Amino acid sequence: MVQYKATHLDATFAALSDATRRGVLEQLGRADSSITDLAEKFHMTLTGMKKHISVLEQAGLVATKKVGRVRTCKLGSRQLAEETAWIEAYRARWASRFDALDDLVEELKQKEKSDGRKSKA
Amino acid sequence: MVQYKATHLDATFAALSDATRRGVLEQLGRADSSITDLAEKFHMTLTGMKKHISVLEQAGLVATKKVGRVRTCKLGSRQLAEETAWIEAYRARWASRFDALDDLVEELKQKEKSDGRKSKA
Hints:
The structure is a homodimer. Chain A is mainly alpha-helical. Helix content of chain A is about 65%, strand content about 10%. Chain A contains 5 helices and 3 strands. A 3-stranded antiparallel sheet of chain A has the order 1-3-2. Chain A is rod-shaped, with a radius of gyration of 25 Å. At the A-B interface, helix 1, helix 2 and helix 5 of A face helix 1, helix 2 and helix 5 of B.
């Protein structure tokens, strides 16, 4: 049985699976913004933007604060460290699988050469 | 207007947002597997596993091949390079935002010290 566990990863990757939400994170990386400003920038209704912000907030990627009637958004505390670690591990496994394939091809080539020599001898 | 575009990223991040699918990728990083074996390993119906494989295949993370009655799965050609780049850029922005905050706090501290000296003088 493979060891695997559900962590924050589900929520973060789901939050990142939308181009608008990634755009919002890029924007908040430049400056804090109100939801109204974000809705305008992304040509979206306030309701639509609120939903995206809610997904990002639940994933810990955005933090919001209401001052008076304005809700301001900023980057949350999640630094995507776990996500980076998972992807790095995947890439390492991917590379080693394809290295193994290269080795096998090389081995078969060598075998062919050696068989060739034997049949000539 | 913020520059952002929908790429493969939507499909990949969505594919990665499920613990079973991440587990399948980890498993396929060790060895190719049939869908039947994967369904068994993850205590899942064949239909359920087929759906997960289909999501992974559409994201280019898994490639399948049918030989006779058995469909074998292996890691696909996507190496998550774009995903890594996106996350790295996010982390860099995140760090610079919080560095800027540190600088501001440091500046305020210095100002306080300097004001303290002035009031003593």
